[in-house]
Amino acid sequence: MEGKTTKYYLYPILLLLLLSHVCNSITISPALSPSPPPSLSPLDPKQARALRALGLSSRDPCSNPSPHHNATSCDSSHPYRHLLSLRLSNCSTSSVHQLDLHSFSSLASLSFLNCSLPPPRHLPPSLLSFSSVSSLRHLSSLLLSRLHNLSSLSILSVPISGSGLPLILSHMPHLHSLTISQSNLSGPLPDSIISSLPLLHLDLSSNNLNGTLPTSFSSMNHLQYLNLENNNFHGVIPYNASFINRLQVFKISGNNNLCYNHSLLSSKLSLGVAKCDQYGLPLSPPPADSSGKSDSSDDSLNDDDDTTWKSDREHHGGGPNKLVLGVAITLSFLVFLVIFMVCISKSCGCR
Fold it and tell me: What is the residue range of the signal peptide feature (predicted)?
């Protein structure tokens, strides 16, 4: 009996020894253990020094979000990272020591907002997008023309010197969005250059552009936004309703010598320009409402064609001539007077 009892006591001991041996034999493979995330490489030292020269913080500009809302993105290259996007806002000569952009050859996007700085002598040719809003005091068309890879160019309230649009656009075959507004551009539109670009957005408002509107714009199948208001264009709008309705935005008001052919376009489009007379000149000053392309059906803004046709006739003297009307009235009065006198004389004779 004692042997059997001892045997029973040994079973739990043996079981514990076996479990201990199994646990000791199980090891976690290093390959399966979670590895710490790789540390990001630092910013290129040249670009870091250039950022400090721009008066920006020495903190990591590649952090997300950016610590100063200027450097917005970097690549992940090794051993150094490089800036891909840079935005400078609300800066002045007191905060920016030197506007040297030679070190930023990796930039794809560069924008300035409210930066009262002299223009740079160099812009990175790698740029795909460039924007300057109330910044850089002035820009030269020669400087902009070197940005051959641009797909988006936006300049607002910045004077542009030099040859203007022909030089700027002559080497930008990939441009999809173009905004140059309040920049003192002058001269006619380079229609052959503009119409050859794959533009979706074209805004050249509030400049001193002149000449007639290019007919080639109607063949730009991808164009969705067209704003040419507040310039000095003249003549007849060469676009039909099909082209205008295809656009999401069409603005042409503020060109006082521009008019539209009422046989091609309805006044209900509210273009903000007057109708043309038979000589292609505006009949009257353009209406006060200059909302551009509109679906408004307000009768006060969109007169019926019959009413306008009558006013056109009166404007051109198409109604009765005043002299002829006066002569006719006088003759009618004399005839009436003669008949009246004859009747009286006959009445007296009968008595």
Answer: 1-25
